Amino acid sequence: MNYIIISAIWAITSYFIGTVSIGDYVAKLKKVDIRSRGTGNPGASNIYAEMGPLYGISVFFIDIAKGLIITLPIILLGYPTWIATVGIIFFLLGHMVINPWGRPGGIGMATTMGAGIVLLPIGALISVIPSFLILVITRRPSYTGVFAFISTVIAGWLVHLDLVATISVLILAGSILIKFQFQYRDLETHK
């Protein structure tokens, strides 16, 4: 099958996976309107703060699995990394921007971590312990996430020397930073 056709199919599939906001579903199961609590973000960090560790950690790992789902099959089947990157971009469009089912999802930190794990696995592995220490010291998931992406990109590039995968993870990190800035700027202006 032609790579362009595979890329188009994967882009559409990834987009629809991106539109599924796990945090919203978990909050609805507990009859909590997570969008009106804390930061208003349906991501793992706000779920953790507003609903408890069990729910926050569950959302975190399910969101990581979403990132794995949009990259791992492409890589395991031996398709070029750029097809996974196209999937990531469309996933982010569905998750962060254009959602036909309602409001967009959260910042996308955990889901993009899942994608980064597949694209730069050794770099991601190298970043685990230092990132965990940053979390323990600062107790700020946002600082931890930024550090994890930076260390994954640097270690991943040095180990893998895969320009496409490295640029893909940089796109992920940049999109999260942009979404974070817009979402929390809007939160401050509504207070």
Structure explained in plain terms:
This protein has 191 residues and is an all-alpha fold. The protein has one domain (3-189). The chain is 78% helix and 0% strand. It has 9 helices and no strands. The protein has helices at 3-18, 22-29, 44-51, 53-76, 81-97, 109-119, 121-138, 141-160, 163-189. The longest helix has 27 residues, at 163-189. The termini are far apart. Mean pLDDT is 84; it is low at 187-191.
Chart the SSEs and their pairings.
Layout: H1 3-18, H2 22-29, H3 44-51, H4 53-76, H5 81-97, H6 109-119, H7 121-138, H8 141-160, H9 163-189
Helix pairs in contact: 1-5, 2-4, 3-4, 4-5, 4-6, 5-9, 6-7, 6-8, 6-9, 7-8, 8-9
Mean pLDDT: 84
Q: What's the helix-strand series? A: HHHHHHHHH
Main sheet: strands, sense, barrel: none
Count of separate structural domains: 1
Cα Rg: 16 Å
How many helices in DSSP terms? 9
How many angstroms does the end-to-end distance come to?
Answer: 52 Å
Strand content: under 5%
Q: Low-confidence parts, pLDDT < 50 over ≥5 residues?
A: 187-191
What percent of residues adopt helix (DSSP H or I)?
A: over 70%
What structural class do helix, strand and pairing data support? mainly alpha
Q: Which word captures the global form?
A: globular
Care to count the β-strands? 0
Instruction: Tell me the quaternary state.
Output: single chain
Brief characterization of the structure:
This protein is mainly alpha-helical and 191 residues long. It contains nine helices and no strands.
